[in-house]
Amino acid sequence: MFQNAGPKAGTPGVAVDPAGGAAGGGAQAAAPPGGALTMFLPLLIMVPFLFLMFRRQKKESESRKGLKKGDKVVTQAGLIGELLEMDEKIAKVKIAPGVNVQVLASSLGPLAAAEPAKADDKDLKDLKEAKAATADKK
C-alpha cells in the first residue's frame, strides 16, 4: 500500500551504495504477509460491539415509546418520579409534591420495581401438605 522509499543521497548519517540506494538496502524488503489482516483486525473487533450497542439503543427507545402519563420513571442520573408529559425531546417528571423537572426524554427509562418473589403453586401445595402431615401427627 505504501511505497518504501530509502533516504535521499546526502542525508547526514546515511552511507550510500554506489550501486544505488542506502547501504544494506540495495534490494528493498517486501511487506510482511498478512498486512491487510492486521489493518482490518481492529474493524473486525469493533463490529460485534457496535452491533450490541445498536441493539441496546433500540430496546431503550422501544421501552421509552411505551411510557405514558402517570408511569414511574427513572432518569440516567437516578431521579425517580412520575411522568407528567413527554414529547420527542423533553419530558416533565414530578419528583416530589409540587416539584416538577424537565429532563431529556432520551435519559428516561421505565422504573423496573422489584416485585416480591412469588412462590410457585407446586411449592405452596407441598408446604400445605407438609403442614397437614405435621398437624395429623400431633
Provide a short characterization of the protein structure.
This protein is of the alpha+beta class and 138 residues long. 35% of the residues lie in helices and 20% in strands. Strands 4-3-2-1-5 form a 5-stranded antiparallel beta sheet.
The whole-number mean of residue pLDDT values reads 79
Number of strands: 5
Main beta sheet: 5 strands, antiparallel
Structural class: alpha+beta
Q: Spans with pLDDT under 50 lasting ≥5 residues?
A: none
Widest β-sheet, arrangement of strands: 4-3-2-1-5
Order of helices and strands: HEEEEEH
Distance between the termini: 90 Å
The percentage helix is: 25-40%
> What is Rg?
34 Å
CATH-derived topology of the domain at 35-110: SH3 type barrels
Can you give a write-up of this model?
With 138 residues, the chain is an alpha+beta fold. The protein has a domain at 35-110: SH3 type barrels (Roll). The chain has helices at residues 35-65, 121-137, and strands at 72-75, 80-86, 90-96, 99-104, 108-110. Strands 4-3-2-1-5 form a five-stranded antiparallel sheet. Strand 3 (90-96) and strand 4 form a beta hairpin. The chain is elongated.
Main features:
SH3 type barrels; single chain; 138 residues; 35% helix; 2 helices; alpha+beta
How would the blueprint of this fold be written?
Blueprint: H1 35-65, E1 72-75, E2 80-86, E3 90-96, E4 99-104, E5 108-110, H2 121-137
Antiparallel strand pairs: 1-2, 1-5, 2-3, 3-4
